[in-house]
Design goal:
By secondary structure, this protein is of the alpha/beta class. It is built from eleven helices and 25 strands. The strands form five sheets. A six-stranded antiparallel β-sheet has the order 15-16-17-24-19-22, with no helix packed on it. A five-stranded mixed β-barrel has the order 5-8-6-7-10. Pathway: Nucleotide-sugar biosynthesis; GDP-alpha-D-mannose biosynthesis; GDP-alpha-D-mannose from alpha-D-mannose 1-phosphate (GTP route): step 1/1.
C-alpha cells in the first residue's frame, strides 16, 4: 500500500520576506494562487492508495495545513493523519516516526513515498510514472531515492553517484552520496553524466526502512522508538512528549540511514523539479519576460532596466537604470538583492533574529487557528489590528495585565464575553474590555467576521495574554 508522507515546515530563510518562520515556504502562493503545500498534496493524492496521506509538520503549522488540505476537492481529512512535532529534529526522526505510525495504524504492508512540501513538480504524469518505478524497487526491499539529472553545475545541492543498473528494474544502485561540491567539481559531474542531484524524495517499505535504521543507526532508532512510545495520543493529530521528542538526534535520513544502508537505489527522474531555494529560482518560474529579460509579478514600471525580477502584490514598484536585481515588496518589508547573490538573503534573517526583530518570524498579517489579524498601527501608546474570525471558531478565554481593548465589528455578527456578561455585537457596534478582565470572541455564524481592535496601555506584546481556556490546546501564556 503506497502512502505518501508529506514533510512540511522549515523557515525558508532564503525566500524572506515572503517566507517567514511563522508562515514558511510551503504556504507561499505561486502566481496561480496555489501554495507549494497544496500542490504537494495534489500530487500525493494522485498516487496514494485509498487516499491515505500522512503529514509530519510542526504543531504551530497544524491548523494552517488543515486549512490548505480542506480546500482540496479530493481530500478526505479522515484519511490524512497528522504527526505534530513540538520542535524541529530533521528528517530522520520525522520519517522513522511516520514509518512506525503507518505500519501500526494504516497498513502492515506500507510503502512510504516521502515528499518535502516545498518542492515544485509540474509534470504530474511523468512524476506518477517514476513513482511506479520507485515503488517496484521499494517492494523488492530497496531503499529508493529520486535523482534529478543536473541541468547546470549547481553547488547548492548534494549529488548521488550512479552505480550499476538493477536487473529487472528501472533504477540504478547508489554508488555514493556526495556533499555539496565546489564549482569545478560540479562542472565535472555535469560533464561526466554519472551524477544526479539528491532530491530529498524517497520511496521504501516502512518495515525495510526501520530494519535498516536498527542496523545503520541504532542510537537514532532507539530514540525514535522511545518517542513513538511516548505519543500522547495515537489519534490524529498525534503529538509526542516533548522531552522524548527532543531526545532524538537532529540528523537527516541521508546521514542516519541512506549513506550506510546495504540495499539503496536511485530512480533518475523524468519529471521537472525545483526546490525553489532562492528568489532567483522563483523568478525563473515566471513564464514570460519582456525584451530586456525582466519578469514581473504584480505592479511595476521598469525604465532602462534589464534582467530584473519584481514581485509586489499591492504597491507599485518603479525601477530605473538597474539590472540583475530581485525586488520583493510585501506589506511590511522590501528586499533588494543581486540575482546572483539571492542565496545570501538568509543572512538578512540571521541579522533580524539577532536583533530580535519580529519581521524574522511574522508578517503584518499573522495567521492563527481561529483566523488572522493584521497590524494596522503599532505605536508607543496604542496598537490597532484588524481581526478576521472564521465561521464557528472562537478565541481563547483570556485577559491582559497591561492593556485594555476596544472591539468594533465592521462585518458580520460576533458573540462576545466581557467579564461574566455575554452578548452579540453586530456591524458598526463596539465594546470595551478593561485591563485584567476576562473576555472571549466567537463567530457563531456561517461567514467570516471582521473586527477592529484598538489596544491601549503601556505594553502590547503577545506574551501579555493569559489564557484560561483554549480550544486549540495552546499554552497558558503566549
Amino acid at each position: 500500500m503506497l502512502i505518501p508522507v508529506i514533510l512540511s515546515g522549515g523557515a525558508g530563510t532564503r525566500l524572506w520576506p515572503v517566507s517567514r518562520s511563522a508562515y514558511p515556504k510551503p504556504f507561499m502562493r505561486l502566481a496561480d494562487g496555489e501554495s507549494l503545500l497544496y500542490k504537494t498534496l495534489d500530487r500525493a493524492l494522485a498516487v496514494a492508495d485509498g487516499g491515505h496521506v500522512l503529514t509530519v509538520t510542526g504543531r504551530d503549522y497544524y491548523f494552517l495545513t488543515r486549512d490548505e488540505y480542506a480546500a482540496h476537492p479530493q481530500a478526505d481529512l479522515d484519511r490524512l493523519p497528522f504527526l505534530l512535532e513540538p520542535a524541529g529534529r530533521n528528517t530522520a526522526p520525522a520519517i522513522l516516526l511516520a514509518a512506525h505510525y503507518a505500519l501500526q495504524h494504516i497498513s502492515p504492508d506500507a510503502v512510504l513515498l516521502v515528499l518535502p512540501a516545498d518542492h515544485l513538480i509540474r509534470q504530474l504524469d511523468r512524476f506518477a510514472a517514476d513513482v511506479a518505478r520507485a515503488r517496484a524497487l521499494a517492494e523488492d526491499g530497496w531503499l529508493t531515492t529520486f535523482g534529478i539529472p543536473p541541468t547546470h553545475a549547481e553547488t547548492g545541492f548534494g549529488y548521488i553517484h550512479l552505480g550499476a543498473a538493477i536487473a529487472g528494474r528501472e533504477g540504478r544502485e547508489i554508488s555514493a552520496f556526495v556533499e555539496k561540491p565546489k564549482k569545478e567539481t560540479a562542472e565535472a559531474y555535469l560533464a561526466g553524466g554519472d551524477h544526479v542531484w539528491n532530491s530529498g524524495m524517497f520511496c521504501f517499505r516502512a518495515d525495510a526502512l526501520l530494519q535498516a535504521a536498527a542496523e545503520a543507526c541504532p542510537a537514532v532508532h532507539q530514540a525514535v522508538l522511545a518517542c513513538h512510545a511516548a505519543a500522547t495520543s495515537h489519534e490524529s493529530p498525534v503529538e509526542y512528549a516533548r522531552e522524548a521528542f527532543l531526545a532524538q538526534p537532529d540528523i537527516s535520513i541521508d546521514y542516519a540511514v541512506m549513506e550506510n544502508a546495504a540495499r539503496r537505489a536511485v530512480v533518475p527522474a523524468g519529471f521537472d523539479w525545483s526546490d525553489i531555494g532562492s528568489w532567483k529560482a522563483v523568478s525563473e518560474l515566471e513564464a514570460e519576460s519582456d525584451e530586456q529579460g525582466n519578469r514581473v509579478r504584480g505592479q511595476a514600471i521598469l525604465i532602462e532596466s534589464s534582467n530584473c525580477y519584481i514581485q509586489s502584490d499591492k504597491r507599485m514598484v518603479a525601477a530605473v537604470g538597474v539590472k540583475d536585481l530581485v525586488i520583493v515588496d510585501t506589506d511590511d518589508a522590501v528586499l533588494v538583492a543581486d540575482r546572483e547573490r539571492a542565496q545570501q538573503v538568509k543572512l538578512v534573517v540571521d541579522r533580524l533574529r539577532a536583533d530580535k526583530h519580529e519581521a524574522a518570524a511574522f508578517h503584518q498579517t499573522v495567521h492563527r487557528p481561529w483566523g488572522s489579524y493584521t497590524v494596522l498601527e503599532d505605536a508607543d501608546d496604542c496598537k490597532v489590528k484588524r481581526l478576521m474570525v472564521k465561521p464557528g471558531h472562537v478565541l481563547s478565554l483570556q485577559k491582559h495585565h497591561r492593556r485594555s481593548e476596544h472591539w468594533t465589528v465592521v462585518k458580520g455578527m460576533a458573540k462576545v464575553r466581557v467579564g461574566e456578561r455575554e452578548f452579540l455585537l453586530n456591524a458598526n457596534e463596539s465594546t470595551y474590555i478593561p485591563i485584567d478582565t476576562l473576555h472571549r470572541l466567537e463567530n457563531p455564524t456561517s461567514e467570516d467576521i471582521h473586527l477592529i481592535e484598538v489596544q491601549c496601555g503601556d505594553y502590547f506584546g503577545e506574551d501579555d495574554i493569559v489564557r484560561l481556556e483554549d480550544r486549540y490546546g495552546r499554552v497558558a501564556r503566549g
